[in-house]
Structure to design on (565 residues):
């Protein structure tokens, strides 16, 4: 029993750490992408919005870079390719992945990453899918 | 056909006639041209019309020319009317000219002369009723010069302080008698002096050969009604030509002068008050995140977003909210057309690095871009973000419909909402 509690503590801790790392990875990727301002639209309207295709590509690129830095993340390229990325320019709107209200143009991203337990596998709980979402918006 | 001296009776009658005519010619030769009297009547007029009437009279004239040996002509002629039944010329004068010494005809036709042959080579087609030669001399001849002076002022109702054009034109009509014995003509007349009295105390005089028209610009400086008057002094000569019975001309030339004048009422009204209301304008900017404005086109914005810490280039545009208004006597009569000449950034220096930003207080050309940067986001006041306010002075030139150009320095501003580049949610 003590061993089970120990295994649970270790794996849950590991899971939380991984989730936190993934959150950072997605968050920083969206923050980077949120600087891709549509300069033509800005000059035409005086308003800031994001260049949708560029911002999405930037988010995916930096997501891949960030995931590669995480040791326990298998196949970062596949995860980055499979990531859901949405650029929202029409605001107010809701983040399609978190349901969070958006007041400014934003980049929204969601990834699904399988997490393998080390100790809980002994009792048949080998892995879970971690879903991490984040958004970044131009905001005053 | 008649020929002289065909019968003794005719010869006798001719001899008697010649004897009488010799006596008349003798007195005629003593004709003194001064026996003709020339009278000139110059009637000046001050209502636009004047005239000169010249007449020459000579009751001593006789006709026909004397015959006989006492005068200068070595020839004598006999004029005989001859019908020829032609539509163009029903009858002619057949003139038989003789050498006075021998009474031999000197203009006999050759033997093979064509028909009609009236025994002379001198034939003159006369009018159907009479010829001048056949008429007695007129006792007098006259000439008349009519002068009309017209005055015009443009505009008829002027504006005090604005120039008017005062014009005077002298027109004339001349009739004169020119007959065989007495001629009366008016010649070489001209305006020697023009005087324009504008009616406001100012008088302009022009002397010399100016012509029959004058046009001067004059300004009435006070509103009112004026009686402008133009006066032309005309001088010339009337010349009579008196022909004696031998065809000698005696000229009698006399000067004349006449004054013709006319007036015209005009008025000047008070100059309408003109006021020019400046346009209502504001600055508009077109932002660009590069160092140049990229040939920005279109209207500018009064409120823009800006990225915190981003060097922003702003093309300056003039937003005309309401054009300048030209008012005449308080009534709007037209709108101006405004354009931006220059601008000046007021307020504090921006966060642009290393002197790359626009320096406040410096007047920039309209085509120059404003370069600014904000390193701090909008200030939060009572939970609300407060935009930056960028004060600018606009130098505007407005051209009004009457050509007046107004220059204005107008304070304006635009607001900037400074955003973080990104914020994670």
């Amino acid at each position: 029993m003590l061993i089970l509690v120990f295994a649970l503590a270790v794996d849950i801790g590991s899971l939380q750490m991984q989730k936190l790392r993934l959150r950072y990875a997605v968050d920083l990727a969206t923050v980077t992408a949120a600087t891709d301002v549509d300069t033509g639209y800005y000059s035409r309207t005086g308003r800031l919005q994001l260049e949708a295709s560029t911002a999405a590509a930037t988010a995916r690129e930096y997501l891949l870079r960030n995931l590669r830095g995480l040791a326990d993340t298998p196949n970062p390229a596949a995860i980055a390719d499979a990531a859901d990325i949405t650029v929202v320019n029409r605001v107010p709107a809701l983040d399609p992945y978190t349901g969070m209200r958006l007041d400014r143009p934003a980049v929204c991203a969601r990834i699904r990453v399988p997490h393998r337990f080390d100790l809980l596998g002994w009792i048949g709980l080998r892995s879970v899918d971690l879903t991490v979402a984040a958004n970044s918006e131009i905001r005053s | 056909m008649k020929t002289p001296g065909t019968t003794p009776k005719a010869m006798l009658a001719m001899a008697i006639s010649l004897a009488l005519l010799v006596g008349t010619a003798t007195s005629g030769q003593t004709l003194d041209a001064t026996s003709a009297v020339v009278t000139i009547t110059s009637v000046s007029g001050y209502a636009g019309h004047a005239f000169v009437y010249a007449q020459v009279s000579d009751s001593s004239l006789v006709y026909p020319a004397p015959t006989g040996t006492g005068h200068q002509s070595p020839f004598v002629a006999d004029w005989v009317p001859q019908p020829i039944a032609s539509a163009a010329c029903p009858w002619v004068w057949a003139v038989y000219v003789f050498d006075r010494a021998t009474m031999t005809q000197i203009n006999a036709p050759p033997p093979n002369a064509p028909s009609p042959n009236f025994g002379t080579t001198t034939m003159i087609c006369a009018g159907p009723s009479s010829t001048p030669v056949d008429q007695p001399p007129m006792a007098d001849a006259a000439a008349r010069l009519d002068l009309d002076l017209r005055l015009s002022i443009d505009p008829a109702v002027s504006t005090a302080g604005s120039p008017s054009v005062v014009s005077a034109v002298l027109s004339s009509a001349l009739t004169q008698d020119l007959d065989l014995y007495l001629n009366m003509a008016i010649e070489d007349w001209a305006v020697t002096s023009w005087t324009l009295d504008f009616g406001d105390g100012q008088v302009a005089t022009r002397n010399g050969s100016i012509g029959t028209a004058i046009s001067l610009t004059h300004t009435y400086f006070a509103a009112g009604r004026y009686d402008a008057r133009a006066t032309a002094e005309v001088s010339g000569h009337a010349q009579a030509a008196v022909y004696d019975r031998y065809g000698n001309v005696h000229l009698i030339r006399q000067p004349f002068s006449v004054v013709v004048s006319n007036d015209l009422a005009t008025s000047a009204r008070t100059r309408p008050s003109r006021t020019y209301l400046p346009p209502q304008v504001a600055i508009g900017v077109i932002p660009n995140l590069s160092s140049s404005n990229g040939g920005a086109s279109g209207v500018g914005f009064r409120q823009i977003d800006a990225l915190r810490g981003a060097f922003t280039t702003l093309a300056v545009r003039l937003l005309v909210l309401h054009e300048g208004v030209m008012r005449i006597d308080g009534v709007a009569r037209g709108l101006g057309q405004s354009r931006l000449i220059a601008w000046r950034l007021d307020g504090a220096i921006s966060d642009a690095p290393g002197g790359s930003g626009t320096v406040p207080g410096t007047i920039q050309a309209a085509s120059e871009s404003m370069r600014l940067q904000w390193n701090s986001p909008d200030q939060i006041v009572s939970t609300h973000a407060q935009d930056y306010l960028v004060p600018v002075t606009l130098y505007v030139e407005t051209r009004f419909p009457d050509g007046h150009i107004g220059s204005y320095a107008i304070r304006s501003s635009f607001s900037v909402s400074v955003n973080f580049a990104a914020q994670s949610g």
